[in-house]
Amino acid sequence: MIRRLILLVLLLLASVSAAQWFANEGGFLMLRVSEWTIQTSLFVAVLAFIALWAAVTLAVGLLRRTLRAPGQVRERLASRRTHRAQRELIDGLIELAEGRYAQAERHLEGTSGFSEQPLMHHLLAAIAAQRRGEWQRRDDLLVAADSANPRARLAVGLLQAQLQVDAAQWEQALATLGWLREKAPRNHRVLMLQARAMRAVEDFAGLMDLLPDLRREQSLPSAELTAIEQRALDERINALGASANADSLGRIWKSLPKSRRRDPVLQARYARALIDADCPVTAERQLRRGLRQRWEPMLVEVYGELPLPAERVYNRLTGWLNERPDDPALLYAAARQAARAKDWGPARRHLEAAVARDDNPTTARLLAELYERLGEHDRARQAYRQALGLDPIGNSLPRMDAPSD
Hints:
The chain crosses the membrane at residues 42-63. The chain has helices at residues 2-25, 42-98, 101-110, 118-131, 135-148, 153-166, 170-183, 188-200, 204-217, 222-240, 246-254, 264-276, 280-293, 297-303, 310-323, 328-340, 344-357, 361-373, 377-390, 392-395, and strands spanning 28-33, 36-41. The protein has 20 helices and 2 strands. The chain has 405 residues and is mostly helical. Strand 1 (28-33) and strand 2 (36-41) form a beta hairpin. Helices cover 76% and strands 3% of the residues.
């Protein structure tokens, strides 16, 4: 305010000084054009020039504003539409979270045409259509999202695969995921969804091929990967049926990565498959190789199930017992083989030692059966009660409701 006042005072002083100068100096200006002659004082001429300059400047400014008016109107309208699209996007998100899917889709798609982020509108509207069970509408919206921003093609494809998996559209999901694997073969989420779809359709051969990538990219927890691996191995073994033999089982086993063939859970499953296929010698060799690499109770347990000559297996087990006299799994396996040979004394001794060292209901039940066979009924009842206490859920009858009057 003060600055403007000072400027106004300076302008007044300058005007007064100029007027005084023109009054003192006098002089005139004469302009002749063809037959026309214009003569005026210098002061009036200067004023006329200033007035003409101001008029031209004003006219040019008005013309510029007139020419720019349509563009400014369009910009304002576009700005209003953009702000409206932002509001509709927020409203659509809220409605989607609240489960009002039809309203959410209407708000999201109604303003997608003039939004700065049409991709978000289409993707969220596709989720809303999925929630309403409108599969074709969902796919159309995903196509629109892909067209809105081709750089987001992988993200759009991942969302489509996720929605197809959520809708249990397994064949469509596998087709989408197959395309995604070509574009991003090591994508963590693609691998996870593909594993889930393959499990659903029981494509265990495909799962076995996928497992190395799943482990390398850590797409699933290790325990879940092991469960998938064991189930896939089981299914491939079961698929052999009566044709299972050492060669066919060996081919399946060697198809596993070398690092996975050291897993004791898989080693035990393979050994049992060999036993079921009447290949106990191969199973015994496999178990001994595994136990040399690492001592594992589950492999010892399977060794105790070998249907080879009982004396031969028992001697091997007792040899190990000399080195590991307190190993409950080894004592249990030796007891089973001693019982196969009907050598009840060692069987009883090994079982009693195993029960004393490990709270295993299976071992306690086997000891109870042995006491029954030996006619020691009181000891048998005590062992049965011990087994029930160790595993009350697995050994108890269902709860009996009181009879109604």
